[in-house]
Amino acid sequence: MRHLSGTTDRSRTRRRAAGLLAAGVLLGTGALTAPPAVAAPPAAPPGSPAPAAGSPALADGLAATPPMGFNNWNSTQCRAEFNEEMVEGIADILVEKGLKDTGYQYVNLDDCWALPARDADGRLVPDPARFPHGIKAVADYVHAKGLKLGIYTSAGTKTCNSAGFPGALGHEYSDAQQFADWGVDYLKYDNCNNQGVDAKQRYTTMRDALKATGRPIVYSICEWGENKPWEWAANVGHLWRTTGDISDNWGSMLSILKKNLPLAPYAGPGHWNDPDMLEVGNGGMTDTEYRTHFSMWSVMAAPLLIGSDLRTASDATLDILGNKEVVAVDQDPLGRQGTVITSEDGRWVVAKEMKDGSRAVALFNESGSAQRIATTAAAVGLPRAAGYTVRDLWRHETRGTAGTIAATVPAHGTVLVRVAADRNWPQYPPAAELGLDGSTLTQAGAAVELTSVLNGLGRTPGLDASVSLDGPEGWTVRALSPTRTAVLRTGHALRTSWRVDVPEGAATGAYDLTVRAAYRSPTGARVRLAVPVTATMAVPPPAGTSSLGDLPWLSARNGYGPVERNTSNGEDAAGDGHPLTIGGVVYGDGLGVHAESAVEFYAAKRCERVTAEVGVDDEKGDRGSVTFSVWADGKQVASTGTLTNAMPAETVSAEVTGAEVVRLVVTDAGDGNDSDHADWAEARLRC
Description:
The protein is of the alpha+beta class. The strands form eight sheets. An eight-stranded parallel sheet has the order 7-6-5-4-3-2-1-8. A six-stranded antiparallel sheet has the order 9-10-11-16-13-14, covered by helices on one side. The two termini are 37 Å apart.
């Protein structure tokens, strides 16, 4: 989690504010203050029965499936464009673009909707510049569209924004009643400025206050997973955040995904794990990564709250958000969160049981290059059957399989399928898997040998199967073995060797190759497959010892901001870091990263060793905890234990002899990536 003072970005300030106030420090004064008393509920009417011991507090029928809708924070934050006109315009778009019909129903206001001060009666006052007609008028407009309105406050004296908008701590019952009177249908309850009051007490008080209004209001607990709400909040709220704020980058999304996946046993109808809002369409990831984001949130039965500005959304963004087959996975009434079946070397299989007995299966590729990912119908929990149907939820195609579920998945991609033991499997063409084996790293003037593989997966054979390989203009592609077979049987493969010649003078960078296949089913249906593959033109490192801070990298991902050369990571724009400093020692060169991070370098099988001085950068004070590791062609060759800011630099030395790719990895040590600024100081590659 990022911490920068003097900013309105809640993701950077709120844990800092919560932590200082929990210690009893008033920001700006240093004075101590006692936590305020939590408001007591109104007395129960005479003769009211006492609640039964252990009875669920939220047996109210709300959030039977994960909530879906829109929240403005990720796209507008507190900028002036967040106003009545914008909110009502979003409601219009949800209807006009068919998103309401897809299942999105909540239009949620985040922070900054109120004035900084309450009125003389202690009531919240909507900002008249942003909401000149008040919140009730906005709610009425949204309701008239068949949608619902959500609102935001914090379980503290102030919300998370630095302007100091009023929080609900000590005002729970009056604030909840205001929300109900305005027609609010959903409350997001944050965790800033909490004055050290016990989290369970604060969130339970608001639960009771909402219940006392008599209005059905979905209750979203946003305490960032700090007090493990999944262990206690099922009877308190309808959903609870499991992590800190998401950011619009691959590293942030991946880190949150990994923290939320193990919590599957705690989710179900009316009580959901919430890994935060969607970033789809905000521009910090590719469409492939956004499809992964949307697929994995859906297979985890996560709330789907659009965080991009729908007023400017691209067709690609709307296609992702509007995919009804993927949304149906998220909204399945059985309410199971997907569980991890396998996870190895960046290849993930996650399966979700569906009410109709089928399984939604995500084949997720965490790595930076295409990989084959496979599982079986039995492994994901389906019964033994003569055949199965596999429905690709992004391609909207159905195939028959004998039981293998497999695909070559692009870098950072996800293939999401729905698999069923289906007696109608013979009606569909047989499934096949197409991929390309061999390294696609190359140099100008070099030749690369690759092998295309077309695997038969169907119970019936594919007939008249053929493959081809397309390369960039000016590259020569030649088959070295047969490209056709009359019959592609189950469990058999058409393997074709190819020679790809790269022209002299080819520039460094990424080039597209596409392997294609075609076959027909026994009933005559023609099937065509295409798998794009990226070939990377790289420059081999020079002989001798080089600073990794000066060498080009093949790929780099980071938790916040870019990987920095020869400075620390400042979390935002390139060049905003400081001199690399660990334990008071300043280093002149290296790499500054933020967990979760991975940086890959081309070693071209000519290097022997990587060395570095590693640790948490001093700029984060006493915060931050990370681990470092070095990988050679996918094999870990060196690692540290958990390092904290209190520790001096540790020397890492890793043998990488014969490796084509060297990867430097930093993790958050399993406790979240708050303040995890990590330095690879004096990082060297000897070749």
